[in-house]
Design goal:
single chain; alpha+beta; 8 strands; binds zinc ion
């Protein structure tokens, strides 16, 4: 059985009040705590690289991206804006993405293509949260 055979899990947490807290991603018997901080949006520090109880077992990138999409859908269902939301404009520019060796076009008003933008939403260090609003937005 591979990761992709396992159905995606569920997110839970909130209400997103106060300064910060943790929400949870639960998949079968496994759970992943996700740190959040309240700013103008809910800033999420989503590290989907591995499960905390088995740090040597990497979660495949494709699965991490599926988890990101599920997280976006969950926030959207709650009508909550988050730091991992997809860019408002998914139209490609005529300029190459700034991602290393990437041959895709960047998105309008972004430095990155949608793939690299999504990767930028993942694997952020919960120990040293950074302001995240529009961090990849072109001034
Ligand atoms: Zn790219």
């Amino acid at each position: 059985m591979t990761e992709s055979d396992v159905p995606l899990g569920r997110f839970s947490g909130g209400p997103f009040r106060g300064r910060d807290g943790f929400m949870t991603y639960q998949e079968g018997l496994r759970s992943l705590p996700i740190y959040w901080e309240l700013s103008t949006v809910v800033c999420v520090y989503a590290d989907f690289r591995c499960w905390p109880d088995s740090p040597n077992e990497r979660i495949l990138e494709g699965r991490q991206l599926e988890m990101l999409q599920a997280l976006r859908a969950w926030f959207s269902s709650l009508n909550i804006k988050s730091s991992v939301d997809a860019p408002a404009n998914l139209v490609e520019d005529t300029v190459l993405c700034h991602g290393r060796d990437c041959t895709r076009m960047r998105l309008i008003n972004q430095y990155y293509c949608s793939y690299h933008y999504d990767l930028s939403c993942l694997a952020r260090d919960p120990v040293s949260p950074q302001p995240s609003n529009n961090r990849w937005r072109v001034p």
